[in-house]
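Ticket #4471: structure output looks truncated?

Reporter: J.K.
Steps to reproduce: submitted the chain below (431 residues) through the standard prediction queue, then opened the result file.
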Amino acid sequence: MHQPLKNVSNILSKIISHGSTKLFSISEDANEYKKLKRTINGDNKNSDVSPDIINKALMEQACEKLKNEQSIILIHDPSDIRKPYSSEAEDIGKVRDLNGRIINGYSTHNVIALSDKQQEITLISNVTYSNKSSNFLHQDTIHKLDKNIEFSGKDTAKNLYQSKDYFNKKTITKEEIRKSSEALKEGIKSVSITHILDREFDDNDYIQYINELNDQFIIRSKKSRTLDIINKDNKKQKLISYDFANFSSIKFQKLSIKNKTIQDGSIKVEWDKFDDFTAIKISILDRNNCNIYDDSMLLLTNQNIDTLEQAYSIYKNYLKRSKIEYVFKFLKDGLGWEDMQVQDYKAIENLISIAFYAASYLYEIGKEYAHDDYTVMLASLGDGKGKVTRHFILKGIHVVMNYCKFELHRRKHNLSDEFVDGLKNAFTVEY
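Returned output as attached by the reporter:
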């Protein structure tokens, strides 16, 4: 397991042991709180706390872990840091809550890696940004500038655009695609890179960009995507209703997707080659040959597809994208990714990055640690009931830390065994 960065190690252990990024909550006293705050603000001498430094360390560790791999999948996905009650935080932006409502928060772009040989997740990078930053320029605004459409604040936006001193979701995504690809290729000889992205990244600009990097991609397509083909209604042909040249089916006895179980059905796989990509259409059919879902899944790739097996492998690889959703859940539920109560943007950015680094530390608990005595005991304390997962290990760490905290308090105040027994009985705590 990798060693944490020097100045990060203390706060890293605090976040892991408490499952929170609230500095006041994870500090033992006021003095430690001040020290942690200086660390987060980057005020310590020779501080190695910054997203760039942390991402560099993550990449170095990834290259070492994956150095013998020939093919690596990189999953890119955004995740919002929702802070609905933090209106005073510096550069607080706007994001959506789980119900689609606009609330306060910050945006992040995240990258994880998988390989054919090692199915364990490797965390690669995390970038935090705000759409209310003075240098943020929305892609719609750029479109208006290109079309010379009048709008409020056009002159300011034009100056920012012309200076090229701006960023947005697209520039950040492209930069992370490039940086992760180049770093892995530099660290791992002759490695093949495949970028997996969800439908919000269905954009010809991304397709061209990844092609120029000589990488591969799997991108889920939007239902609205059209082809450079005019249909019988004299309109551009939609990909979703296109008659694919190649098709076949895979039968299955039982298939579980999310909370739905389908029996005795089939997966219809269709594919066809276009100028810049091959499109693959996936339909899940029941025993009556009826579509389970209202819409089929459309996938775009630049990989060579000649057979059913090749087309189906694209679908199976795309499904691995869901793994990053579990990373976000672990970060938010287990490590308090959204809990932070600092106001300065630099501190917010650093805390988000350190929590991501903490997750990477715990995600290294793979098969080689599954039978370690300490690991097994921690999972047992975390109610693992024989299962050794990072979730139960983290819960076990919290149990141990709470016990240690209690023992320190007991010794400090010289509490008798009788008093402790009375305390246990009063609150019906079972041991």
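Triage note (M.O.): checked the attachment and the full token line is present. The chain has a mean pLDDT of 90.
Status: closed, working as intended.
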